[in-house]
Structure formats: structure tokens, C-alpha cells
Amino acid sequence: MPAVCAIEVAAEGGGIAAVSRMAWSVVQRQWPGTQLFVLHPGDAGRAGFVRKGRFAARIASAQVLGRVDWILFTHLQLLRVQQLPPAGLRRPYAVFLHGIEAWGPLSDSDTHLLAGATLRLANSEFTARRVMAAHPDVGPVVACPLALMPPVDRRDDPADDHEGDAPDEGRGGPADRTCDDDASVSVGPAAVLIVGRMLAAERYKGHDQLIDAWPRVLQSVPAAQLIVIGDGDDAARLRERAAQAGTPADAIVFTGFIGGRTLDLLYDRCAVFAMPSRGEGFGLVYLEAMAHRLPCIGCRDNAAAEVIVDGETGILVDQADPGRLADAVVRLLSDRELRARMGAAGFRRAHGRFSFERFSSQLVGELRAAFEQPTGAAAAPKAFA
After folding, report:
1. Nearest to residue 151, comparing CAs of 307, 264, 229, 271?
2. DSSP string, 89-150
3. Fewer CB near the last or first residue (10 Å), C or N of the chain?
4. How many C-beta atoms lie closer than 10 Å to residue 216's C-beta?
């Protein structure tokens, strides 16, 4: 029996939660009875020492007691629990790699655990190449491009059936912070949307560049509006940067965290999606925008170039060139026919090249090849010192 280990699986969570939900959905359908271990079961608070300890102990004991045959870890950080079981009792495992946390510097311990994985999956070809270039000794990394989850079916919601601690009350998790009243966000006919965390450690997303480009955009499209969705420890700085840009108050709008029905409505009401990030491992938000028939602006030097087809479903720019970024925004806002054509092409690409069925088929194939012998038996444990 397999197990899936995740940081969180909340429907309103970010990209990591979405990937975990996808992986869990695929594995538990293919291998009924799959166990799910979740570090953050239903809340957005950071796990403390006690919760992390319990989480690690459950996974370790499941291996020692022979209750799992193999494990899929949906994030690199979770591999650290594999230091607990004795090497001879440690079950074989796979890990899903997402981006900068995998191609950046790793401790000797993390590198050792990554090398010990039977299967290393990456969310894109770009991430796979970056990880292998940064850590050539860990072994091959297989690209398994992401997709959009089908609409949530509460009967299959992993939050309703998993091994995890009870949620801490009063945390104000994503579900609690979801806004269901779209009246608070006024969207004009020339609105450009960016959706993403605003963290000081992740300033590569492109918020600063969009804010800096906006005065130039307004010179050509006076009604242009930048809708910034998300939150984080860098939000206050970005708001101040926008205030100092000298644009009208309603030209750059910060909404805070929004999800669910309201986010869908905003995707539908905006004209363009722009996230000129230089460090995306994949960028699920591009797919979300394409599914809402929005043309996308991204950067060419990361995984956005695998999702967005330059000149067909959107425009790829150099983040370091604010003039070209502004020109791309102006071009799309000024040409309704171009937006419609790119939006339609993006919609087809999101539901074709990045369909959930395609993701599911590839993930199952990779897991079967890694963990099942021709007879269907699970692979033997991979022990290492």
C-alpha cells in the first residue's frame, strides 16, 4: 500500500497544496487504500515542533511496522522524516520537486536524501534541468508537467480523510480568509491581474517590475488597472512602492488574499494576466488564467516558457526590461481581437497539453515503473548509509 505525504492539501492553498491534491487524487484512485499524511491539515499556521514531530513519527512508524510499501513525498522538505527509520526498514520513496527550493543550495543531509529517492519528479522540464545542473550527483530527475485540478468534489476531499493533527483553532487559514463577496473589488475594462505570494524571499515574482512599468502603461492606456491578489510579509513594501509610483489610487489595487468563487470572477473580469516572474518552476497561475481565456505575460528565462507560447497564447518578456514589459501590457490592452485570439489558444492549450488526464497518466506510469515489479509487487526498500 502506498502513502502520500504533503505539507497541505487545502482547496484554497497555493501551488504546493494544489500539486499535493493532484498527486493524492491520482494515487488514491490508482491504488485504493493509499494513506495520506498531512502536516497542515486544514489550517494555514506554521507547524510547531510538536506537530512536526508527530507528523514525522507517524510516517516513520508506518514504515517500520510495514504498513506502507512506498511513499510519494510532495515536497523536498518532507524528505527529512526519512532520517528517522532505520535504513533497513526505510521504504522506497519518490519526491516531487517544484522549483527554487530544489535547485538552490541544499544541505548535505537533504542532498543525501534526494539522492536516495527511487524516483525524483519535477513539475517541468525547466525544473528538472535546473536541479540536475545544480546537484549533478543526486541522479536523474523526470519531468511530470502539472495540470489544473478538476472541480473539487467534496466526496473526494482529502481534508475529510487523512492522518493529521486536528486543526488549530483561530489560525485564520485560507478557507477562513476566502472572500466570497466580489463587490469589494472594482474591476475596469482594462484590468491586468497578477496572483501570487508577496514574500521578501520571493521577490522574483515580478510585482516590483509591474508597479514600475505602470506609469508608462497609463500613458498609452489611461484606464489601465493593475489588480494585485495575494499577501505576505512583503506586501507593505509593495504597497508603499505603488504609492510612490505617482499613479492614481485606483490604478494599482491590492486586494489581499482572495480565493474560491471571487477569484474565478476576477479572472473572468480582467483582460490580461501578467506575472513576469524570473524564477517559476512551473506557474500554475498561468494555467488558471488560460482556463479563463486570458492572454498571459510571463518571462522567457524560466518555466513560464513551457506553459506560455510566445505570440500565440501570450507574450514572453525579459523581466529586466521594464520598457518591453510595459509595451507588452499596452499591446494586449489595446487590441481586443489579439486578446481574444490568444485567450482562445491558451484555453485549448490548458485543456490539451496540460490536461489532468495527461498528468495522471504520466504520474501513474512513472510510479509504476519505479515501484512495481512486472508481477505487481512493490520494489524492495532502497537502503543507504
Report:
1. 264
2. GPPPEEEEE-SHHHHS---HHHHHHHHT-SEEEESSHHHHHHHHHH-GGG---EE----PPP
3. C
4. 16
The DSSP code for 278 is S
Three-state DSSP string of 285-321: HHHHHHHCCCCEEEECCCCHHHHCCECCCEEEECCCC
Grid coordinates of 101:
527550493
Give tens-digit pLDDT for 206-263.
Answer: 999 999 999 999 999 999 999 999 999 999 999 999 999 989 989 999 999 888 889 9
Report yes or no: 126 and 303 within 8 Å, Cβ to Cβ: yes
Q: Which residues contact residue 41 at a Cβ distance below 8 angstroms, ignoring those fewer than 6 apart?
A: 8, 159, 162, 164, 165, 166, 167
Neighbours of 300 (CB within 10 A): 15
Q: How many domains are there within the chain?
A: 2
The answer on 191 and 115 residing in a single domain is: no
Residue 381 lies in a domain: no
Do 190 and 82 share a structural domain?
Answer: no
Residue 41 in any domain: the answer is: yes
Residues 51 and 193 grouped into a single domain: no
In the numeric block, which cell numbers belong to residue 6? 504533503
> What is the pTM assigned to this prediction?
0.85
| Cell, residue 368 | 509504476
**Which domain, by its residues, includes 126?**
2-170+355-371
Q: Are residues 84 and 224 in the same domain?
A: no
Tens of pLDDT along 21-64?
999 999 999 999 999 999 887 554 556 788 889 999 999 999 99
Give, for 28, the enclosing helix (H) or strand (E): helix 15-30
